Here is the input.
Amino acid sequence: MSDNMRMKLKIWRQKGPNSPGAFRDYELDNVSSHMSFLEMLDVLNEKLIKEGKEDPVEYDYDCREGICGTCGVVVDGVAHGPVRRTATCQLHMRTFRDGDTITIEPWRSEAFPVIKDLVVDRSAFDRIIQAGGYVGVNTGCAQDANSIPIGKEEADKSFFAAACIGCGACVAACPNASASLFVAAKISQYAHLPQGKPEATRRALRMIEQMDAEGFGNCSNHAECEAVCPKGISIDNIAVMRREYLKAALKTGSATI
Amino acid sequence: MQNAEKQTAKPNVIDAILSIFDSTVGRKYIMGLSGLALVGFIVFHLAGNLSLFFGAEAFNSYVLKLESLGPLIRLAELGLMAVFVFHIIFAFSVTAQNKAARKTRYAVKGNAGKPSRKTIASQSMIYTGLVLLIFIVAHVWMFRFATRFNPEHVTIHGAEVINLYTPVVAAFKNPWIALAYSAVMLLLGMHVSHGFWSAFQSLGAYHPRYTPVIYTAGVLLALLLAVGFIALPGWVYFMVPVK
Here is the structure.
């Protein structure tokens, strides 16, 4: 454990969505190994603000507890950095060594345009959810908790899929910038539950149609997404999505609904 | 009139197929299905061609067996070509879409490690596929068409059949052809090593217990295919005596 690590940073700087971006080199002294990756960037920004020569580095974060899905940068070519099942905010500087050079890039996908520096626009995910990632519920009094029995194994599968925090690391890590793992998780979490059955057909078709319309790539089964996912969502869900899609397409006789 | 309207409102099969072709998930179904069919063909192809080890008569009787199927073998050839065409066309369209999905590349490319199955093979499917495509065109020309321009016939079990053994041996006695053939077969192994398990996953067949088995089986199959196909020119080049 060290309190005065010296880091060399190569950070993608881009003024706005339409301006060209480039890497800039920074050096940062007195980095504590206990700092989180985002705290390290905070310290860099403090320094940049004090110096007053350039804008601080823009990056996304919210909870800093690894559960909100807001943060996320590509660290040395790996989304969320080198530690498995970890969002960028939970990555700590002890992972790196004194004197290391770290390259920091935003998620790269045409469907996630860069807003500024390391911040990308992930509203494509919201539109996919709006297309069908929901269930209809009765309003009024809450229903009796045990009125719909669900097997433990199915409930577990649904929960594992529902752990997706929508950070977009799957898209960032995919060689094809495919959103399959995200969409699969959001389809699969309902596919395993009776509550999700009524809308199953249109959910699969509409969400996949929207995913394609946003310009994500195809899934080539590299499984790199599962490896970077902070929640460890399995590509099993992608197979579920494909089955749901085939069922829906055969049922309606069409891939659009 | 009402009936006619009802019928047009009903989704028709052509539209359904076309819209499935248009979706990213649907296209992978086509890739997976056609890929598995091609693997099936290649296994059959290798098994038949192993008769090369047993000399001219064994090889030519295999040719005779296929030829005696008559129109059925021509139909199988056409079917095989159709599967190839589907696999190739969708491979190009899928790849074009993938390239368009990320125009700005990463400065640093990393690997997250397990459970990722991202390999050189998985990332070079379009390139190994392209080489295989060029190879297949040359291969089909060389052995399927060119051999039939000026064919020599032999008699086996009282039946007359085209002698394919001599041109195959002549080709593999050429060190450049034998070497190029072997190199391409390595690429075929690479292609299958990712393609086999990937096809199952594309068809929605995933199982926590069986998928690792399918993955390993795919790699072994790839190895077997590469070794088997390389053994053919190897055998001919080193072991078959020059006439």
Summary: Chain A has two domains: 5-105, 122-252. Chain A touches chain B through 56 residues (CB under 8 Å).
